[in-house]
Amino acid sequence: MLQNYFKTAWRYLVKHKFYSVIHVLCLALGITFAMVIGIYVLNQYAVNRSLKSVDHQYLIKSDWGEAEGGGLDITTLGPLAKTVYEEYPSLVANFYRYNPVTNVVSAGENHFMENIAIGDTTLVNMYGFPVLYGDKQHPFTDNHSAVITESVAIKLFGKKDATDETISIHTTVNGVKQDYVVSAVIADLPYNSVTRLTGDVLTIFVPAAGSLYYGSGEPLSNWNNPFEIGLIQLQPGVVPADLTRPFRQILATHTPENIQQNLTVELAALKDYYLNDNNGAARKMIIILSASALFILLMAIINFVNISVGTAATRLKEIGLRKVFGGAKKQLVAQFLGEALLLTAFAATLSLPLYEVLRPVFDEILNTQLTSVFHFGWGPVCFLTALVALTGLAAGIYPAFVLSTANMVVAVKGKIDTTKGGLSLRKSMLTVQFTLAIAAFIGALTVSRQVRFIFAKDIGYDKDQVMVITAFPKQWDDEGVHKMMAVQQDLLQLTSVKDATLSFEVPNRQPPNAFSLQVATGEGPKAPIISMGADEHYASTFGMTMLTGSCFAQSGGYIPGQIVLNESAVNALGLTVESAVNQKIRDVASGNEVIIAGVVKDFNYSSLQEQIEPIAFFHVRDFRSYRYLSLKLNTTDMANTVALIKNQWNELLPNSPFEFTFMDEQFASLYRSEMQLKRAADVATVLNFVIVFMGIFGMVTFTLNKRMKEIAVRKVLGARIRHITLLFIKDYAWLIVLATAIAWPLTYLAADKWLASYAYRINQDAGLYIAVAVIIFAAACSLITVLCVRAGRANPVDSLRDE
To answer: Is pLDDT at 445 greater than 80 in this prediction?
Structure first.
């Protein structure tokens, strides 16, 4: 029986090659895109899942409210995680704290910039990181041991087993390096929110106890230090709400009143932290891409159903004869479902090489690494199997039940009216297709316009030809600042270097420090203002506009105790731009006073999703810390200029690696998710159009073949080709109008919700909506016209000849 079903299905598909090809191609495109997005989604949900006991792991986050000098939301007080573990062992099973830093790591004569975690020795055992070399139970042997990743071991020592080798970490103290003996090498870790929490990949882990990095004691033990990352593992059965009271009691015991009043401790689950971080950016991307894949697959299924039901008349005699000879309804259903599954299997077979060919393209679009077909595990295999089965059933279930319920007598006669109701269904599904196509097109254009707006907007500074060098060595004292400023002056002597500035941050990054400031007289409001160090060349290097005063660049040179504010900071302090210069400002916490040297025009120092907030600049000599040396270049020969700067850097700082980026690259990285969404939306829109118009092509071709005698009669009676074309266009025109009426409000609401996440955004334009509808209408009419003209040129005699 099954063999007979297979033969019948195969013969039918071979006989109707044209429609079979449309079925297979549409399904193959849909399945390929669904595979890409499905594997991407599986990878996204797998982030952090490899961590040991991840269901019980939490990050301690901080809501500081209006606290003076509050820390970041992803950091907490240094001792908090350890204290809650020690005082509430029935609630907390383990803890890990660390301070992420970037500095020079030396192995003999080799010097590299590495991301280092100065933290607790509980790391490996708490998260189950695989130890390749060293003691798996005690990877840290003492306070002078280090755990490094496999790739760093190869980079520093040229081998994987680097145990017992010595590395030197440069500190922020003048001339001080701290030696560590490598006690364990762990495998390179997949993306996770422990070693990638701040964006940089941590590769070296050293104990905080005995660390000389800051020269001021161990920061993890300081209750006034709010800039440590703290993670805890809860006991089985314990939920975050169970720690609300313990956290309050600990803060009441160990912290001053202003912290108790302003700090709210929150726990963020580590298992889905990646999906929820950055306002749920990853989760939103997954939802949008999954919806796009579902729409494309749905369009392919609709094409299958439309063409299958539309061509049903060609199989009515077969169905009638099967019933005459005793064929049961369930057997007919199985027959047609089997055919649908067979076609879907063909499409899936074709989609595998398509997926493999397109995988590098989507790797770049989505900034990921999709799993190769040859390395599929159980997850992707089960996903693909389920995808094929569900797609085949969804595509075949309606045609199967429609055809199997045909009346036996009229089916034997091959009457078309046995598919009563099929026309309405096909038109309804075509309307759905047009609706999805219009919505996808408008969505893609909206994303594209917002991305163009982002890159074209005046952000308040000039990012072109600005080289940002990570300033090593990090010697955070007066002498260290003077040394780096001397390097700055030497680089300024190069003809291709127009300007240079030493600073703690660059314009596209939000500074981590904040101070509560107030006008010294005490008359104005207190305002928490983020702050950073910069020098007198900061505004000129980045092309910022000084509205009044100067950026520490008054005649006579550097004057201690000055500050530069942006417009928002001036307004937050209750001042005006015109009256701000020379006003005295007081740091509420310390009582220290500074004088406003100038006011800089507001600039976007973070994503356009965020409003511009108050910011204050202290002179880098007063701030006594720095991280970046930025050069404004003036050259058309970038390659030679970079080589020249590198040579000069190596002469001035022979033991410091030359690590740099360009501001325009950093700016683009802020909007990586938007660029991914734009490219994916473009691909989805193209696939939508391909599938929709392949479906229209198949349906119109079938309809024309079925109505050839009618067309011939019309021609004999004097109808012209344009009349016949208009007749067919009319059938589809109102479907596009209806689809437009449905798509416009739905798309507007969805686009408006997406745009609402941006503080600075485009306005939705009615012209865009109208243009999309016109384009789709024109494209559909053009396709129908071409097919009708070809059919209309046929000789009426051939069509009217009686069989």
So the answer is: yes
pLDDT reading at 418 higher than 50: no
Q: Are 704 and 714 within 8 A, CB to CB? A: no
Q: What is the mean pLDDT of the chain?
A: 83
What own/partner pairs with CB < 8 Å and gap ≥ 24 does 586-592 have?
A: 586/517, 586/518, 586/519, 586/520, 586/522, 587/515, 587/516, 587/517, 588/68, 588/515, 588/516, 588/517, 588/518, 588/526, 589/68, 589/69, 589/515, 589/516
Q: What is the pTM (predicted TM-score) of this model?
A: 0.80
| Angle at which helices 17-46 and 378-404 cross, to 10° | 140
Residue 184 backbone phi and psi in degrees, to 5? -160, 150
Q: Work out the average pLDDT over 111-137.
A: 93
Cα–Cα distance measured from residue 699 to residue 784, given in angstroms and rounded to the nearest whole number: 10
Conformational region of residue 165, where left means phi above 0, alpha means psi within -120 to 50, and beta covers everything else? beta
Give residue limits of the domains in the chain.
Answer: 1-48+302-418, 54-271, 473-658
Residue 180 has pLDDT above 90, yes or no: yes
Task: Please report the DSSP string for 403-457 in residue order.
Answer: HHTS-HHHHHHT-GGGGTTHHHHHHHHHHHHHHHHHHHHHHHHHHHHHHHHHHHS
Given a cut of 60, is residue 381 above it in pLDDT?
Answer: yes
- When pLDDT is averaged across residues 536-551 and rounded to a whole number, the result is 91
| Per-residue model confidence (pLDDT) at position 711 | 66
pLDDT score of 417: 46
Beta bridge partners of 113: 104
Element (H, E) at 722: helix 721-755
DSSP class per residue in 229-248 = EEEEEEPTT--GGGGHHHHH
- Which residues, other chains included, contact 759 with Cβ-Cβ below 8 Å and sequence gap of 6+? 608, 609, 610, 611
Q: What share of the chain is helix, strand, coil (3-state, %, to 5)?
A: 55, 15, 30
**Which pLDDT does position 501 carry in this prediction?**
94
Sorted by sequence, the CB contacts under 8 Å of residue 197 that are 6+ apart come out as 59, 74, 100, 229
In Å, what is the CA distance from 448 to each residue of 442, 630, 678, 774?
10, 31, 6, 19
- 386-401 pLDDT, tens digit each: 888 888 888 777 666 6
